[in-house]
């Protein structure tokens, strides 16, 4: 971290817990990241300076938090801590030291006083000129420095001190570390690990697309540029090639340096050689095909005289003894020396973000033919329970449960403590997810011994690396009454939602298990950390709260009741009493299945949280329970596959909020009526309590159905009015409840009672909404099931389910209609549904409702595609479970041929008779121990496209309640406008299939599409919780609020601080950091600092590619933003390349019929116009016009703008007639929408006059030529070539970007102030300013600025990463956006 200026290091160092336990969690040694961790730190532009971090992070705690309106109580730093923090800040200083490695010139290194010596060590292992050294110490004046000491604690260390790098003797462990490090260096530029999905490697193509680092390019003039787009991104192109998804694979490969580097078969050294310092033996084959045996001794590496057959450990002559293996190889192999130098250069050219490991593994659904090379270390890792980087952690296998719970118990009273804690939690969690995924795959691959091997294969459980694994099957008829295997498959997902809910509450004293759900090869595996002592006794003995037998025996404990009291109120769980088999009343604050277990470590654990939230009665028909008439019309209740359907937490929160607003408005209305009555009696005109805002009588129905609006503008207006009325109503209710007067109280009690009754509150004296999760559960015996309270509880659960169908789904439709939400593919549609609390089982209902609106036809297509994909995935799951491992690739390719191909009888590449023979043999010798993973099933061979599609259509009808009107891939594409390549992509991502990267003509009808060699791998689909950086979230929210209020300077500082805190908690890579970088890029752009905007956005693109995937919807948006910033920086060729890439990725996701393509095409058309490629420009602009008319209506201002752009391009081509026609259309729309007096209408009118004049002149001359007058010469046609600046302004308009009016004087003033406060800063953070006057560049709507806000949702699992139309919306962020007079 030494290379960084700034607190990234400060916290980084400070965050490194000293104990080995926490070391495990932190992994800051040569741990997971190996040399890579430091790479990011070497990037000095990463973060801001020490001073800035110091202020915001700690010392300025009080000042910051005053402006932080969203801060929770108790989260502020106490004033009494202020002094300590100030001392902490003063001690944090930056200075420069000199480092002198052996054999090279000394160099200077900026460091921070809070850094550890270890971080300098890491940096040296990463620097190009000394990266081959691993075993050395750092010495100051001959004294060796302690690796874990902070620099400020080192006596005599000051600015300018010389630290010497001294080579140390090796130990066996150090020698092994050195060999691993050398192997990592040799493959550091190879993308094999990324395609294989190992070591948290992933792909990034930005620097290939832009032909190098954009920040290093000079501002070039846009002349003589080849702007021709590839054929496949042209409007109307039918071809969707796959190869461009992974471009430049050849260039990405590094040169080969060695043929073989492996441990020798002569290991370990015999006793007599150990006495001579031999540690281990290596075997190397060089590119010259020479074979060497190498001894690693305590003093270094040398060649010995051993051969494959003969052991001779004596040194070869001449004896080259080198402390580094690389130095030795340089001496014995000239080709190694040459190629290794090239490799290091290539490595140093990579952006740091291309090298740092991601927190979670990202898998690619396409991969080139794998080149499998000899790699002993990879082979060793494959069969070891310890991950490679865990070699550096003291102790044996990691105790995951202890690590997970210890990190939760760390103190968190002030900001530095919270950062240490959150960082440790995140690190341990990401390590646990990696280990659990690896273990789950080993279980399914048959590589782990069951702990109950005598049981039937489906009932087997496993322990590997201190993690407990169970399969998604109904063990011992546990879920017999709930739907058997279907319930057992759904339960882990529900349980994970419960774990997530409790984890996010962070309750003190209550612990949840580390939980990961992995779907792999058709099986669902749940991985959990192990409660200490649970395996030593029966579960019945362990449970002190809840029930182990679905309600027959129910127990409780005072401690658990106390712990759950707080969580129950936050999760809206109602305390309720149930009867056990002895008729004893037991009070529960959770569902009955939820179990409380006290571990041997005396911690209170809570598990089996699958019914944390109330049941979904729409999918749980109960005898004698009626649903409302409206719900019956929608076809509910429906029978479901299992009896565990629950509502989502997001729905519960939205429902309670909706009911609270209804309650408040009801009470306020009644109160106003009471006041008016009093006034009428007393004729007192000056009653204080009456308000100017009249509150309408509440609707009779508490949950009104949302009517999908025709006009987005009126919707916005209504929403603002509604908010004002609600705010007024809340004030009145506060007055009501806070008054002490006796008579007043009697009147108001009645008002509150009526309002509470009207919204279904469970209390008559206040608004009380909580849910009994055990409602409608036949196995639970409730106390007083006929009582009024219980009836109210039942009604409330019914109302919540009704709210989903009558309110939340129409809200989703409405958001898509007004383009505030615009899903790109199935992933973003699912996230949009989840954010509104809509479960995926309602996808059929969502599709049915989207089908009614033609302007969101693209969302309907995405919904249908997702239904087919999910139906196919359900089929695939059962299909995969029966396949013999030898026929796996044949089976998968056959399934894909049946799903996507038009060839009626694809041939399964396996002999059916052979399969049946095998099956018969197997049946004869079947026994209880036969593994579930080897049960042969040959039914899949007989599948055809016809039979598979019938199964999918039946599955979708049964599970999602939607009737697909298609029976093959052809009919699906014709009927619903689907794209085969999009369905292929969606299915491979959802089912975890990795295909060979090659061109496939998916439309071919006379042969099958895929063969067994096309299936490269199967990858796991991993679900887990996502720990959050709470302080960063608060800084981010506060920054957004400031920006909304126009205080850009303060907002910019807060967002920058959020970025620092995110880096402290998550390290270098995380999707939330990408969101933060994107917002900082946009802020810099708005404030006119284009180079800085480009720098931030470049990092956002790289990070999005790495952590989300190269074809993720977010990545498309990032590319489009970067293209705009490149254009602003005069990098026109790069802007076009990036836009072409964005269009290609969008086409892969959804095809051309999407408003996002309209926006991209407008951008491409404008940029091509700027470089005078008018013919190409026109094709893109006309296509954008067609799409905008389809999705925004022929009268929208967006369409008018498009007509104007098309007219401008026609005029530049000299086609004035066509230009005139287009401009007339624009003028008509402006005149009708904005009126004749509006500036935009006047501009259009002027343009029309000019075009008419030009057209008349041209026509006259043409007529004269036709008459035969040869002396006529054409006057120069007045075509004005657009300036880059005018094109940029138009780009801002179509992208809906706010323009900030800020004087240069103010900007300079702010920069000077920042420079004064942060003398060591680079210019990163001196680009901000205060803006009180925001001026929008819209299409001229007279309604004024429409500033939209979108709450930042940091939870990656639930966030809706939407990419919208003209409002280039920042997903997971909240940004100043401008509506375009929709």
From TrEMBL:
Composition bias, Basic and acidic residues: 50-85, 1315-1338
GO CC annotation terms, alphabetical: cytoplasm
Top-rank lineage group of the source organism: Eukaryota
Protein name: Clustered mitochondria protein homolog
Database matches in SUPFAM superfamilies: Hypothetical protein c14orf129, hspc210 (SSF103107), TPR-like (SSF48452)
Residue ranges constituting the Clu domain according to the UniProt record: 378-620
Xref: InterPro entries: CLU-central, CLU_dom, CLU_N, CLU_prot, GSKIP_dom, GSKIP_dom_sf, TPR-like_helical_dom_sf
Ranges where the record places region Disordered: 1-85, 682-702, 1315-1344
Key words, A-Z: Cytoplasm, RNA-binding
BP-aspect Gene Ontology terms: intracellular distribution of mitochondria; mitochondrion organization
PROSITE patterns: CLU
Family statement drawn from the similarity comment of this UniProt entry: Belongs to the CLU family.
GO molecular function, a single term: mRNA binding
Main location class: cytoplasm
